[in-house]
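An example makes the point: we let one protein speak, the chain in one-letter code, the fold tokenised, and here it is:
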Amino acid sequence: MTAAIAATFQIPTEIHYYRTIFNIPLWWWNQPNVIFTFASGPVVCVFFGMICLRLFFIYRKGKNWTRLFFLWGYHHGFNLFFGAYVAGVISRSGFRHASNWAAIPVEVEYLIAIGAMICMFLVGFLSVKFFLQMAISQSLLVNYRRNRFITALVFFPWAAGSLTIIALKAPRITYNEALIFLMMFTSVVPVYIAQRFFYEVQIVRYDKPLHLNKLYLGALILFAFSFRYVLDDGILVQFFPEIKIQWINH
């Protein structure tokens, strides 16, 4: 989306796995270009986060892991908006360019960043019951097992997923992007804090044993290799003088 918006401003853009390259001199940038280009990605992400939340409620009572997929999509979508802004303010890059070129004072940026962190905490608090409802048995929700259940369902996927993406992009992972992954803790920690306040949780019992879908796992591994291979060379997005979206195969 960032590349597409930049292309509408006649800025040819290269998408790589480690950064996005805008093929114009610095002095060609102006206020609308910067604001719309750097804000478009996060805005689309939070929009998809809301769609994932809606889809979670649709699949909430299903006997499969699709609902958990959409629940995590909700968390990531909001993190790539609120968390990305906090990361941008800290690293002085990324989403923060939009507010900087909008002439927002630095002091106000820090206040907005604090508000963004509070919003992420709320995302976590509002999701506590939803995560607990993922249990396949009430025995997993007894007091002495809850922390281990939350660790397996919330902390481990966040940590393992972040480390996997960092490894996939190594050694060119940027400081700003690493901070965005780290900012997910603002919605993970509240789940640990608030889960003790939910004494009774209705769950959907599973009739069949759970198992790992090898087809999905294979597709994920194939996508990861394709992601690194294709975006190592990059994809060019250009709308002027002609529409061009192509793999830059050197």
Remarks:
- Residues 35 and 98 are 4 Å apart (CA to CA).
- The first strand starts at residue 13 and ends at 15.
